[in-house]
Amino acid sequence: MKATKILNGNQTIAEAVRQIDPDVIAAYPITPSTAIVEIIASFRADGLITGEFVCPESEHSAMSVCIGAASAGGRVMTATCSQGLALMWEMLYIAAGLRLPIVAAIANRALSAPINIHGDHSDTMGARDSGWIQIYSEDSQEAYDNFIQAFRIGEHPDVLTPVMVGFDGFIISHSAEVVQVEDDAAVKRFIGDFKPPYPLLDTNRKFTVGPIDFTDYYFEHKRNQIEGIENSPRVIEEVGKEFGRTFGRTYGFFEEYRTDDAEIGIVVMSSAAGTGKDAVDELRAEGKKIGLLKPRVFRPFPYRQIAEALKKMKAVAVLDRSSSPGAFGAPLFTEVRSALYDYEKRPKLVNYVYGLGGRDIKVEHFKEVAGKLEKIATTGKVDEMLGYLNLRE
Amino acid sequence: MKKETWKELPTGTVNIHAGNSVSNLTGTWRSGRRPEFIEKNCIQCFFCWLFCPHFAILVKDGKVTGINYDYCTGCGLCAEECPTKEKSIVMVKEEIKLAEGRKK
Amino acid sequence: MAVKLKDLAQMEDKLVAGHGMCLGCGIPLIFKMILRATEDPIVVANATGCLEVCTTIFPRTAWNCMWVHSAFENAAATAAGVEAMFKALKNKGKIPADKKIKFLAVGGDGGTYDIGIQSLSGAMERGHDIVYVCYDNNVYANTGGQRSSATPLGASATTSPAGSKSPGKVQKKKDLTKILVAHNIPYVAQASPHRWQDLYNKAKKAFEVEGPAFLNVLCLCPTEWKYDESQGIKLAQLAADTCAWPLYEVENGKYKINYKPKEKKPVLEWLKPQGRFRHLFKEENAWMLEAIQKEVDRDWEDLNKLAEISGA
Do residue B9 and residue A221 have CB atoms under 8 angstroms apart? Predict the structure, then answer.
């Protein structure tokens, strides 16, 4: 039955897992996503789920078990973050290359060194070229909704691509919020059945999965793989709309907040977008024409749509919760900037790295950014392309 | 063999043609010697079949009938392990046939 | 009931001709037997290595059964995943309860003793109903002969080469079979391709036990051991006759030696035909030959004691 519950991010993911009841779940505990694994284990112990729960000896093996299970033919998921995702690295590319629609819940956490258990996007941003679809969530409700949609998106026959759903470690994973949990049967209906094209367990057939390619086939197989994620925007949009029709919350590639007549804008993902919206409200009350854009889907990057949404603004700041040392700005920034390249009239762009290792970002920091944007909008000049928010200088 | 375009390949990295390596004739690797089957000495122990790494022993109606030179690489394990007093498989000299494309 | 080669020869090959393994390679000999040791369909999970590379160069495959490769160090975890899905789909009634499939994970000594030992240990400890077969050719043959932890004491490998100041590898081979015994799984065995019936029986037992089983099979490698490839089976026989590679099994913790040479031969008979040990026959390396003999003797003695304690 549909119910309103007080749940944190990990609990909402676990609730979705209980409703979806994937065939195989293989996951290794790691802070801050541990609770997902523990709750799933207790669900299994109490018979609330019927799928196999495998508790491997490492994240590398967790993803390997997922790959074996998905190749066998069925619905598969895992949960991890940070070092765990880093240890899976090798296997992430293989899951994508074998076109296995595994779904991973990621409680986004910083990468070592120094070791840090708190929320930032270094983990998933590092995996942005692994071939996985990436969806980011602002709060527990979005984590729940995105996680459910991830199966429909990844398992679509034109897509067949793994999906990771990010939600900020601790900030979302451990913060209790009001969450609308949908009816079990309705979620099951929405998800439907998954029919993999080449299941190893169909032993009436015979095929070789994961052979070696030399120079004469690797490129073709890679291009074939890319097609899956290239096909995904249409599916992501359809699934987001259908989710809206079914459960009342519609999703697209990103959310625009008060951008209609905005002259300056802030692009920010995940939990910080909530704080950003408060800042926008306060600045709007002061008469500033500011808006916020919160990307939801980072891979595939909705470059055309984002560029269209931003092109009329005078100055835009892209806020990244990860860094890309030595690059021309952090990951989200380089994407946004690149998306706008083809537009003759486009905003000035600046990049702020914020919140590494769980450092707070508050309304005042958004206001600081807005102040700089106003200056850029007036003068048309950018003094500093890359800055750091709330850092002791 | 016509090479597929990326659109023609099955989704994922899958080879749907099980066992199609038989078109790869490893017999072209032989370099100077090959086994010869002498049927009259054979006691049908199947050791040659057992110890052939290249699946090159011909078996028909439950009997070893000879060598499949399409695959035989000339390693000599069959002849070496043939237990009959008068060998049923002996290694003989063979003119070296360089594989296509490796000729001068 | 003893199985006849004639009957085995008439079974369908699950691994077929046209693979690219070397002249005289031991791998096909091993899997010719193992893949015949069950009537049930098999899904093979193959670690990166000689077998995987030489059998699946796209667009060709030498596999005539279900087969999957994902990476080097995780054949056990991959097979565990396939097996978990099989169990799950049975639980959920999506696969008939009486359907039988065997799950075979396969790796060389690189993928098993070294990089894959963690995932192997994990899968064995978790009790997945899989059979893991290590084809142990004592070296990273696929990449051209680098040492592994299965490379024997004194062997020259490209990363433990013999030289004027080096007698080859100075470390003893890791005893992986015993490590697997320590996992308290139902069945662990060491085998060799020259004793085909023993190999076949062990594979059959491994498939039949409920829960994980592990086979460590000595694998001939003329390319890296550097011997006349026609002599491989005789060499394998010498490995058993010198007790450098004893054939034994451990069933539910009980040791049983499956082959005791009537007369234990000196280890140098096994070493001598192989180029990788050639340097040991120089005067200055005589101490190493002695050390190798000592190690072999001690291990053989220990094994006999274990078998004795087991009452076999």
Answer: yes
